[in-house]
Amino acid sequence: MHRFQSNETRGRQAGSAMMRNIGRMTVLMLVLTCILPFVAYHLAGGAAISALEGQLQRSLVLTNRGIATEIERFRYLPLVIGEDARIRALADRKRSAAALAAANLYLQTVVKQAGAAELYVLDDRGIALAASNFATPESFVGHDYSFRPYFQDALLTGEGRYYAIGVTTRKPGYFLTSRIDVPGHPPIVVVVKADLLPLEVAWKAAGVQTAIADRWGIVFLSGNPDWKYRPLSALSAEALERLRKERTYDGADLGATAPILPQSVTPPAGETDAPALQVEQGGQQLLARFSRVEPDGWLVLAATSTADTGKVAGFWALAVLIAGLVSTGTLYFLHQRTLLIRMRLRHSEMLEQKVAERTQDLAREIDMRRRTEDELRRAQEGLIHSEKMAALGRMSTAIVHEVSQPLAALETTLATAGVLAEKEAADKVGERLLDARALVKRMQRTVKHLKTFARKDASDLEAVNIDTVIRNAIDLAVPRAKTLGLTPALEAEGPAPVVTAVAVKLEQVMLNLILNALDAVEGRQTPSITVRRAVEAGRVSVAVIDNGSGIAPEHRDRIAEPFFTTKLTGEGLGLGLSIATAIVQEFGGELIFAEAPGGGTMATVSMPLDNRPALPLEAAQ
Fold first, then answer.
1. What is the mean pLDDT of residues 579-583?
2. From edge to edge, which strands make up the β-sheet containing 590-595?
3. Per-residue model confidence as pLDDT tens digits over 122-177
4. Tell me, what DSSP letter sits at residue 261?
5. Are β-strands 498-501 and 462-465 bridged in parallel, bridged antiparallel, or unpaired?
6. C-alpha to C-alpha distances, 297 to 171, 218, 223, 282, nearest whole angstrom
7. What digits encode the pLDDT tens for the residues 51-80?
8. Backbone phi, then psi, for 311, in 5-degree steps?
9. Which of 140, 280, 433, 483 is most enclosed, with most CB atoms within 10 A?
10. What is the chain's percent helix, strand, coil content, to nearest 5?
């Protein structure tokens, strides 16, 4: 009996302790239910703002890439145009009417092919000599553009860039210029006008609050029509006077337009880590981020409404409130249940045992729930880690260098087709167009191979006729060689040998060596380039020999280093010989540079022979 009373006493004490604990938890949960919704509202609002900031940052990255891509399409066009004899002839002050007509027609043809808005040529005084729109009422010919900064910058530094509204056509555009120096004559300036309005049209169609402001803070492209030709902040008198003098936004009353940002808000410098700004525009709250676009000093603005952040924060606050009420009700229920258990414990020891068993069951359920939660947490962490690893594997390879070489050949081929078209030589025009199409395909393959080289992917090796590779490379270089007054000579001994290689890559090596030789002999009175192929001791050697200035002794050890170049800025990235060396080594050969007999350079490719029959180059490609 004493034992039974002792157990009953212990049961009542345990029941009282449990009831007090559950009561405290119920009160604590009730207090938390009153506080946590406000905390959840604040945290959810902050998370929503952070998500919007990340979205704006991604939008800025895509916008910057889109701007760079649109400009890069025409960056080299003025320099390429300036290499044409019809354009260089304009530097002669005694230029004839026929020369002017030929230049006008050439610029008109290039505009149709390249997709630029306009092309025109200025003399050293800023007067337009020839233009692609010479036959239209808005012709640039004869107009004075010396007040434009892009002309002044080109004369001083060799190139210029400027965005403005055209004073002749009243159409805005981005002007890219290059100074063309012709020996014995005053320089001329080639100008390409690129149309950036497609970016604005795309933003409007997508409903994106995106805008680009110039270095003065004036928005000139925007997906929001109300922002166009408005300053971000109030303009100074100096800025207004400079813009009036340069006639940047001719016809727009900049002094009378209200700034986009409030007076208390100053746009940041455009760093990627600059905090977002919350501004009021048109009666709604906007979250805005900025980024800088160089070298023009443009400021890109991306904004979005914060109206939905309040809804998201309210949703989470309501969810926490409901969860707190449910938890409080559950604890209250447990408290009442504990009272019932305490009453039952008073009646019998058997009831105490059942309560203990039930308590053990609850403990097992809690342990099982904890294990389940731990497993779910580990699975979630594994998925997050996998996603991070997948993100690290995504990257892009920039392709710049090798496209410029076949592009020069393509321009010359199309120019020849234009001349033949004027002579109504339809069959020869067709041949030139086929050549141009082949060059485009070759350029696409070159880009593909550069990407393959950057990823170090394996390519399928095959038996290649090296003479066919050499002839194709010479064919590609012939238009450039003719402008220098020579034709590369091929000296081949014996039957055509076969090597193990990838035909297109090997052709790229040969073309690079020939073009480097052409650069070396430019300006020589009697330029000469010879491609000599020989077979000896189970190896085939191809030597490209020129009578140029040769390689300086201090440059011989670095000539195949990546990004090393002796050319002027803008003429190359110094990757050609580095890529060529890597390709030749991939095929088991070597690339050697030496001084040619009698002066100049001799670049020799040496590769082992392959006794298998060669595939035609077209099939290999």
1. 82
2. 489-492, 529-536, 539-546, 601-608, 590-595
3. 999 999 999 988 888 888 898 998 888 889 888 999 898 888 887 787 888 888 89
4. S
5. antiparallel
6. 22, 12, 20, 28
7. 777 777 777 777 778 787 777 788 888 988
8. -65, -40
9. 140
10. 50, 20, 30
